[in-house]
Write a structure and sequence with these properties.
The termini are far apart. The protein is mainly alpha-helical. The longest helix has 67 residues. Helix 1 packs antiparallel against helix 2. It has one domain. The protein has 2 helices and no strands. Keywords: Coiled coil.
Length: 97
């Protein structure tokens, strides 16, 4: 959801940028060019921050996948041990009777 909101925000900024570029091409003032430069810098900063966040999320996802795999292995081992113990108990009960 956060990424979609960010994409929408950046799309809006892109539209504003396109409008400003069009006005610059028609011979706008120095102030308009300066404002466009600031907007471009803001977008570059936002993209850098988003990239860092995406890399962080990806790294966290990879760590969780490794953790999940380790836990699944542990569960499988414990299930095997439980089955072995149940068979042993059943065997002992059968020998008693």
């Amino acid at each position: 959801y956060l990424m979609e909101a960010k994409v929408d925000q950046l799309s809006g900024l892109l539209e504003v940028l396109n409008n400003r570029v069009s006005s610059l091409e028609s011979g706008s003032s120095y102030e308009a060019k300066k404002e466009l430069l600031y907007t471009l810098r803001d977008i570059r900063f936002d993209l850098g921050a988003d990239k860092a966040h995406a890399e962080s999320v990806q790294q966290e996802r990879d760590q969780l996948a490794e953790q999940n795999e380790a836990l699944q292995t542990k569960v499988n081992k414990l299930e095997y041990r439980i089955k072995f113990l149940l068979r042993t108990i059943e065997g002992l009960e059968t020998e008693k009777n």
